[in-house]
Each structure stands twice: as C-alpha cells, then as structure tokens.
From TrEMBL:
Belongs to the glycosyl hydrolase 10 (cellulase F) family. Residues 1-327 form the GH10 domain. This is Beta-xylanase. The lineage of its organism: Bacteria, Bacillati, Bacillota, Bacilli, Bacillales. The chain holds residues 187 to 514 of 853 of the full protein.
C-alpha cells in the first residue's frame, strides 16, 4: 500500500509539522520531511546561542540554511525561540564586571537581537515562539525566576512581543510552554495571556509543547487546557509533540516491544481525536522530530534509547503513524 503523507491525511484539520536539525536536510530524511510535513521548526538553529553567540556578532549560517530549505520545499516555518532561560548566552544578562545588567541594558540587547533575527526572516517565518517556558506554577505568581525575571520582573515578556511585532508585523506571535495540561500551570498561562491581551500586547497564540509519555498525563487534562485557553481570543498550536515510552527516568530498554508500540499507537490516535475535535482552535500540530533516531529524548533527561515519534530509526512508518492515518 502507498503511504499517505501526514500533511494530506490531516489537510482538512491543521498543518502537520516537524522539528528538524540541519543534518536532516539531505538524503532520506529530507525526502521524508518533504513528503509528510507542511511546516517545520528548526530545532536549534534559531536559538540565541546559535544566532548571536557574542554580542552584536550574528551567525546565521545554520538558520539561513534551515529556513531556505523550508522555503525551497514549500514548507511553512515556525521560529523557535526568542526569549528562553536555556540556550541563551550568559553575556545577555551580565556586564563586564560579572554583575547582572539593568533592565534598560537587557531590553536594548533583546531589541537588537529580535530586530536582527526576526527582521532577517520577515515574510519567511509565519510564527515565532516569542517567549518559551516562562511559567513556573510552583511560584506564588506563576512566573519562572529566570535571569530575565530577576532583572526585569515579568515586564520582559511584553517587551519581547512588542519588539517582535515591530520587526515583523505579519508574524504570528506565541507564548510556548510544556506541561500545559497541569491545571495550575494552565491557569497561570491563561491569566498571563489575558493580562497581556488586556494591555494591548501583540500576542496571537499559545504553544503547547506536549512532551508526554506513554501513560502520562491523562488525555482529558490536555483537552481541559485546550478548552480553558479557548476563551482568550488566541489560536493554539501543538508545538513539540512526542511520546516517550518510559514512565520513569530509571528505565532503559534496548528495543521497542510490540506491546509498547501498540500502546503508543492507541494513545497517539486518541490524542489526535482530541486535536481534531478542536480543529477550530488549533492551527498547527508539530512533532518534535520525524524519526526516533533524531529524538532529543535519546539524550534527555538521560542517554538511553527511546521511540517517541512516528517513524523508526530506519525512517519506516511505525504503528503510531498507521494509527493516525487509519483513524481518519
Ligand atoms: C531541545 C533540542 O531538541 C535539543 O537538540 C537541544 O539539545 C535541547 O533543546 N523544549 C523546547 C525545545 O522548547 O527547544 C527543546 O529542544 C526541547 C524542550
């Protein structure tokens, strides 16, 4: 039987995307990407440590290649990410005496970075994850105590959205986070977006990373959050979907059993039933990688094999793939 492209299978619901690293722009990985995916997210190439490793000295080699690959092949691009506490060089936050900078200095650096990066890909990147992982539901105000926060309180978030909007008024601007199924976290995120909207901050959407595993969380919690966010007047995108087969960090298997492959397929199908039900709220569903061999979960949180995606190490369709296409 011929293999239905995912993007065709889901064409009446939402564009299907994948993250990729630049080694996937060649050979069979490139063919798989072009066949199945309507959008792509460079997995690392647009992060601050890649594009501006030292102040004012930009390196767009990887990001230019990645964006051009997408443009040449008619795929939309999600830009990831502008403000984050990880993969951001220390110089952003410190002065030459190793003291934290003032918020004025921080904002000048942020604006220069966003002007350069967002401006460079104006018209080529349709959506930006402007702020990534800013919520920490263990804090009384829900705000992560990152260096961004330590220097500027939560005001850096609206600055980032304003700078991004000025650099590309047509780009859709997202706040992106993980574990958005946790009710307390979802509420903080909801209320932050509500406050930003009330202030007139240009925010268009919520990105739900959706790094889940084979038995957690309950899919009803994912659905509850989609519903919770739907009164905000913003779109939602599933930005980093994958499903680890592990239920604890101490497990380590040498192969994917048929039992787990089937369990994963069933769960993926059920998850997509939810996404399809909310297709009017969800404007993209992106997997955090095509094939298991390229998954970040093979090195995080520990180095071990994992099989979280739709295609196996040999780029063959897994049960998870078939469960999605056959369920349509
Ligand atoms: C990951 C990349 O896939 C890895 O290659 C890198 O080593 C670490 O970052 N949440 C995010 C993504 O927002 O940027 C992360 O990507 C995965 C978790």
């Amino acid at each position: 039987a011929s293999i239905t492209p995912l993007k065709t299978a889901f064409a009446s619901y939402f564009p299907i995307g994948t993250a990729f690293t630049n080694d996937e722009m060649y050979g069979e990985n490139a063919n798989l990407m072009k066949k199945h995916f309507a959008s792509v997210t460079p997995g690392n190439a647009l992060k601050w440590d890649a594009t501006e490793p030292t102040e004012g000295s930009f390196n767009f080699t990887s990001s230019d290649e990645a964006v051009q690959f997408a443009v040449d092949n008619g795929m939309k691009v999600r830009g990831h990410t502008l403000v984050w506490h990880n993969q951001t060089p220390n110089w952003v936050f410190y002065d030459s005496n190793s003291q934290l900078v003032t918020k004025e200095v921080l904002y000048a650096r942020l604006k220069a970075h966003i002007d350069a990066v967002v401006g460079r890909y104006k018209g080529k990147i349709y959506a930006w994850d402007v702020a990534n992982e800013v919520i920490d539901e263990s804090q009384s105000d829900g705000m992560r105590r990152s260096l961004w926060y330590q220097i500027a309180g939560d005001e850096y978030i609206e600055k980032a959205f304003e700078y991004a909007h000025a650099a590309d008024p047509d780009a859709k601007l997202f706040i992106n986070d993980y574990n958005t199924h946790i009710p307390a976290k979802a509420q903080f995120l909801h209320d932050l977006v509500q406050r930003l909207k009330a202030k007139g901050v240009p925010i268009d959407g919520i990105g739900e990373q959706t790094h889940i595993n084979i038995d957690y969380p309950a899919l009803s919690q994912i659905e509850d959050s989609i519903v919770k966010f739907s009164d905000l007047g913003v779109t939602q995108e599933i930005t980093e979907l994958d499903m680890s087969i592990y239920t604890s960090s101490s497990q380590s298997y040498t192969s994917l059993s048929t039992t787990l492959a089937t369990q994963q397929a069933t769960r993926y199908a059920a998850l997509f039933e939810i996404f399809k039900k909310y297709k009017d709220q969800i404007s993209n569903v992106t997997f955090w990688g095509q094939d298991d061999a390229h998954s970040w979960l093979r090195t995080s949180p520990v180095t071990r094999l994992d099989w979280p995606l739709l295609f196996d190490d040999n780029l063959q369709s897994k049960s998870a793939y078939w469960s999605l296409v056959n369920a349509l």
